[in-house]
Structure formats: C-alpha cells, structure tokens
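hiii, so i know i said id send this last week but things got crazy w the move. better late than never?? heres the sequnce for the chain we talked about at the cafe, plus the structure i predicted for it. fair warning i was half asleep when i ran it
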Amino acid sequence: MIRLGWLALGCLFVGLGMIGAVLPLMPTTIFLILAAGCFARSSLRLEAWLLNHPRFGPTLRAWRDSGAIGPRAKAMACGGMALGYGLFLLTARPHWPLALLVAVAMAGCAVFVLTRPAA
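okay and structure toks below
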C-alpha cells in the first residue's frame, strides 16, 4: 500500500513537472526531482525512464550525482524568481514588511541555487 502511495505521488509530480514545462513561472525540475525520488521507492522502471529521458534525464542525473545545477538553469531560476517577485509587488501591493519578508525568502532561494556546483 505504501509503495502504491509513492507511485501515485511520483505520477502527480511528473504531471506537475510537465505542466511546469509549458507554463511560465511554474517550476519543472523540482517536481521531476521529487518524482524520481518517489519512483525510487515504488517503481525502478519508472525511475529509470525518468533518469534516461532525453530532455530531463541529464539534469536529474546531475542533481542526483552531485547536487549540480547547470548555468542556464541557474539563470532561468533566478530570472523566474525576480519576475515572480516583480509580479507580486505589482499585483499584491504588499505592505513593506511582507514585501521584505518575501524578498528575503526569494533571495535565500537564489543564493541556494547560485551556490550549487555547475553541471
């Protein structure tokens, strides 16, 4: 039963990753990393399919092997965070404490991404 739960969660994450591949500002890679982890606990065949996928496999293998993120992915991630923060400021018009809190959280995420080794 637990294995089936991991399998369902992995399929959900693959679906979210595929949506993220076509929708701007929705992440793809993090959902596929999560899916690979779920499949490692439920279906070695699906895990192998994901890790050997021609488009997403190299990124997933680089993350799994060394926690690496490629330079293009780093630029896209940081650009997406900056764009998302700009849209947040324009549409939500938050008071300065909330705007500062969100800026600090996003800056922390950007620092994490930028300090990962290059793939």
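btw The helical segments are 2-22, 29-40, 44-51, 57-66, 71-92, 96-114. thought thatd interest u
miss u guys!!
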